[in-house]
Amino acid sequence: QQQEEDALTPGLPHPNSARHPSSRSSSSRKHQKQQQQQQQQESKQKYSQPRPHPLYLKPRHIKTHFKATTSDGWKLHLIRTQVLNVPPRQHHPVILCPGLGSSGAYSFDLSPNVSLADYLAGKGWDVWTCELRGNGASDKPKLFSTRSRWWTIDDHVEKDVPTIIRFVLKETHSQQVHFLGHSMGGMILCGVMARVDTTTAKIRSCIAVGSGLFLEDSWWRSFERFKFASHAFWIMPSGTLLRTYGKLMFGPWAIPYLDMLYFWPTNVDPQVGRAMMRRNFSNISVGVIQQISTAFQPRGLTSADRKMIYADPVRLNKVTAPALFMVGDRDRMCPAEGARKTWQMFGSPQKRFVCLGPAAGFSDHYGEVLLLLIQLSCIH
Fold it and tell me: Where are the beta strands (DSSP E) in the chain?
């Protein structure tokens, strides 16, 4: 109270100082001691208390959850992101499709400060984050079920994506959608465009991030010699292994080479990286893994029965929708050359290829998943 009075009446002595001459000096010493203690406490808190976790933040926008059922009975999870009480300014919705074994929610909407969905919604877009069969909050395979536990990329192309697009168009009363696919999500997008059917006509623009139909130089090819063993399983526990390893990532027991498959260490927040790894991944169907292995060959990705070549220049040359391909210069899962080769096949009058890295004017190198975790500094 005395300090407040002194602050409110600067230059005037306190009434008690006339009766107690020594009170001023003792009060000053006491005030200095309190300031020192407060400074020590603030300094201790500054260096001892951890920063607020990036996940523990209040959502910026409204999230609405939906379920869309495919023709073969799988229920797919969709999340719609909208600004509260503000209608979208753009006429066509945006669909965000995640990669291999990934949750759309944690790939594109990890937290309010690391969210592509929130960023686009803030720019006036109606954003729909999808999760494919077997991933995220969509239906998972069950051991005792009449529904098949085996699925391939063809199922994503022919059943999941058409179901998602039809559902979004019905809910938004739109005619077309913008489609962004990350990693395998971009491969699925290319597969949809290569089919040149009614679903293809509903895609207004194509955005492939860290994706391509050619994986000849991919890190995944190191597992090609073990492909024969996959016939003994119907699911690969990769999601369980990656979620477990997420606790060790960027720590003293981490494996640097494995860390750099998913992030480029110099430009990722370790908290964000660990949070994504511990939540994002699901186990992968062996059918998907076996079909991806077809992209190791010079002709690129094919259908599971090898009858259709998704990387068909004749088919992709018929694409007229604008196309944007973005890839990191240190992407070991989808090397930049494979993404560029895919992009060149698109016949789109408006198309662009961007390889993120110092050679293209960016301040740092970029890996694979990091493209979606950064706060869109490259776009800003």
Answer: 62-69, 75-82, 94-97, 109-111, 114-115, 127-131, 177-182, 203-209, 235-236, 284-285, 323-328, 351-356
Task: Report pLDDT digits (tens) over 97-152.
Answer: 999 888 888 888 887 778 889 889 988 999 999 999 999 999 988 776 666 668 99
Q: Which residues partner with 323 through β-bridges?
A: 206, 351
Would you give the DSSP letter of residue 133?
A: T
Spatial strand order in the sheet of 75-82: 62-69, 75-82, 127-131, 94-97, 177-182, 203-209, 323-328, 351-356
Count of residues for the chain? 380
Evaluate the CA torsion angle 356, 357, 360, 363 in order and state its sign: positive
Burial class (CB in 10 A: 0-12, 13-18, 19+), 265: middle
Among 140, 144, 160, which residue's Cα sits nearest to residue 69?
160
Return d(Cα 37, Cα 317) in angstroms, integer: 71
d(CA 92, CA 112) in angstroms, rounded, equals 23
Name the stretches of the chain with pLDDT < 50. 1-24, 43-53, 232, 371, 373-380
